[in-house]
What does this fold into?
Amino acid sequence: MESNTHTLSQIRQLIRSGEFTRTTSGIMPDLVQGNVVILPKQDADRFVEFCDLNPTPCPILGVSEPGEYSIPSLGNALDIRHDIPQYNCFEHGELVAKPTNIEAFWQDDSVAIVLGCSFSFEDALQRQGFRIKNIDLNTNISMYETSIATNQTEHFKGNMVVTMRPFKQHEIEDVIEITRGFDKAHGAPVHIGDPAQIGINNLDDPDYGSAVELAEDDIPVFWGCGVTTQSILRSAKLPRVITHAPGKMLITDHNYETLVGRL
It folds into this structure.
């Protein structure tokens, strides 16, 4: 399905009906997308504290009221129980379900935390003529666990997860400059070049998403990733955690400039 042949309303309806379950990378490219974490209120308050200390991998775009499954600042009539192509449901750190809606899992104290996503700067790169390899291949983005430590709190600690997009050497300076302006979408890269320096042993075997083949002159470029939240929350072994499935995001109603102006 080509995103430029569908309106946001049509895309959202396809997601709500369960017909659209693939990655949202490249879908509605002018609109901000978000990672989603859903926790009971007490855990949500503590996790917001962790996110505030780690704005590169975990930039907060919005937080719902307890029991409310919409965040008006992110879109009209959003239903976070249904508006993500696929969810991950965890109990005590174990993945127990991967549903296409979470109505059966939603509770009165559920709080949704929406965090920025690097998919939101891909359109800006493409408008400047840069190719995004996973979009060209119609696959999910490559995501890797790293040795980069996050700023820990009393309740949460662990290492950063990153996304990787390959670029040519002569492109990298402009890529850095463009993405630096998207601080609510992870901003500038956290690492460029040798993946072993950040604890990644094999680019062909991502921890999440899909691998892409690098050409001989490609250089891997790494950005902070909201899937960091899933890694951190799994290790915390909380009784009840719901997240988006990696690469399958919440699509908001707004472009980046409009949304950031509302924060």
Summary: The two ends are 32 Å apart (CA to CA). The longest strand covers residues 159-168.
